Amino acid sequence: MNIEQTPVLDNHLHLDPVQGRNTEAVEEFANHGGTHLLVLNKPSWHLVDAATDEETFREVFDLTVGAASDATEMLPGRAWPVLGVHPALISTLVEDGYTPAEARDIMQTGLDVASEYVADGPALAIKSGRPHYEVDDAVWDASNEVMCHAFELAADGEFAVQLHTEGGEEFEQVAEWAEQRGMDRQQVVKHYSGGRLQGPTKSVLADKDELEIAIEEGEPFLMETDYIDDTERPGAVLGPKTVPRRVRWLLEQGEADAVRIAHVETPEAVYGIDTEATLSR
Predict the structure, then answer these.
(1) Which of 33, 203, 216, 224 has its CA 20 to 30 A from that of 238?
(2) How far apart are CA 250 and CA 208, in angstroms?
(3) Where are the domains of the chain?
(4) Which DSSP string corresponds to the chain?
């Protein structure tokens, strides 16, 4: 198999239609063999302001829906928006004078709005999580309540949740929290994952060593760059051509089955999308 015979999905990439490369980054992805994208909104304060109300969340989400629509025009496959609330918003709000409980309520409102976009059609899934840095107990507890609210919304709407969390491999409790609220743990995706993970589905950063570990583990996985689309940090975290390059490398290593798992089978199982039917080269 060669790369022209398979869908190539980047499961977590940011586009910035305000001050980023935006469609240039999509073109780079497509020119190297990429076909499908899940486009995550950047934190609200990177696009407009730190969101404190529905209107600001909608402004951010609309920008991302538009970016994904523009990306679809340039891809042999298509792009889907994944919308939500970056967990670091809680720290920004607390620094601005909100209590952790007030910040929690604002963030849950943002997730309510994001879930509307899934229900109404333009978005595929939502994003939530908890801080990846040290916070006090009140902020940590409030963040977990925000994340569990995302699970409730996803269970009601029958869609997936991408999580931005601290690092590590042990997230069994998080998967159990999702199950307790009616979700299938397979639809809980830990973005920026290594090759090993307990609990949710792993979205593995496209690093050769971590991909080899993921393949050895023999479990469903996705691939991502977490590309940030910041002109002052041009390659952060990984550039948009990285996933297609890693797919070529995997195919050269004889790992066609792993490529199918990451780019066809797992996207279907997690999100209900058909990357083959939506592909026309």
Answers:
(1) 216
(2) 9
(3) 3-271
(4) --GGGS--EEEEEE--TTTS-THHHHHHHHHTT--EEEEEPPPHHHHSS---SHHHHHHHHHHHHHHHHHHHHH-SS-EEEEEE--TTHHHHHHHTT--HHHHHHHHHHHHHHHHHHHHHSS--EEEEE--SS---HHHHHHHHHHHHHHHHHHHHHT--EEEE--S-SB-HHHHHHHHHTT--GGGEEEEEE-S--BSSEEEEES-HHHHHHHHHHTS-EEEE--B--BTTBTTSSS-TTHHHHHHHHHHHTT-HHHHHIIIIIHHHHHH---TTTT---
Whole-model pTM: value is: 0.97
Calpha distance 40→123 (Å, rounded): 10
Residue 12 vs residues 17, 53, 153, 189, 223: alpha-carbon distances, Å: 16, 25, 20, 10, 8
Mean pLDDT by 10 residues, the chain (281 residues): 96 97 98 98 94 97 98 98 98 98 98 98 98 98 98 98 98 98 98 98 98 98 98 91 98 98 98 97 72
Interhelix angle 208-217/242-252, rounded to 10 degrees, is 60
Which residue type occupies 114? A
Distances in Å between the Cα of 254 and the Cα atoms of 2, 33, 35, 238 are 10, 18, 21, 24
The pLDDT of residue 234 is 83
- The span from the CA of 55 to the CA of 194, in Å, is 36
The identity of residue 142, as a single letter, is: A
**Which pLDDT does position 129 carry in this prediction?**
98
Please report where in the chains the tokens 């709407």 appear, as a residue. 157
CATH 3.20.20.140 describes domain 3-271: yes
